[in-house]
Amino acid sequence: MKWNYCRLCWCQARLSAKAVVGQPADETDVRERLAAVRHHQLFFMGMHYRRRPMPSARRRGGQWGAPRKPPPAPAWRPEPGWRQLPLFEQIPCDYSRLALADADLANPWLTWAKYLAHQLAEPRGWGRNIRFAVNRGLALVLTDYVEGDVIRHTEIFTPLRALDLPVGHTVTVLEEMAIFEDDSEPSSIDGVMVLDIRDAVRDVCEAGA
Questions:
Q1: What are the tens digits of pLDDT across the range 125-163?
Q2: How many angstroms separate the most distant Cα atoms in the chain?
């Protein structure tokens, strides 16, 4: 207490005087404003006078958080080049033997797939983590892809689940590319055909992440 006025009253008086004259207030002006105080004042945290402004938490550019990764450049379906026609049907691919570290990031099919995934992400509400996981899944299943091959559900489901990658979202992109075949079979319970929706439910939950 000073002259029967608390510290907050002094701070408020100095702040009011400075706001009026636009410069540090002199003692006379502050005393006149203190004399006008006739009641107790209520202050909330952060609203009283501060000697120094708090440093801003904003990064360069005035935005919060990490900078956004630029969107992928526009890409289209790769031009079909000459290739020898296969003598036999497509051999099933064992994706479990592939590792993300061995993914062919320069594959034009992967470039196109990433662009499509970016286009599909916003209208479907895919979060940042989902988009990242989808790109990893696409890098895995498109590593050895060549024109004319078909990627089957039964071949990619287990390998993607083993890496905790979203099957449903990855399949959405592959369907958009028209290179996916859903060969999964419905399960039967007491003679009633019931589709296995566990994968779909999990993907919906992950979309909200």
A1: 999 999 999 999 999 999 888 888 899 999 999 999 999
A2: 101
Give the model's confidence band at 189: pLDDT under 50 very low, under 70 low, under 90 confident, else very high. Answer: very low
Q: What element of type H or E holds 180?
A: strand 180-181
| Burial class (CB within 10 angstroms; exposed 0-12, middle 13-18, buried 19+) of 134 | buried
Fill in the DSSP letter of residue 96: G
φ and ψ at residue 94, rounded to 5 degrees: -95, 95
pTM over 0.85: no
Alpha-carbon distance values, 2 to 5, 10, 34, 37 (Å): 5, 9, 11, 14
Contact 171, 180 (CB under 8 A): yes
Does residue 155 sit in helix, strand or coil?
Answer: helix
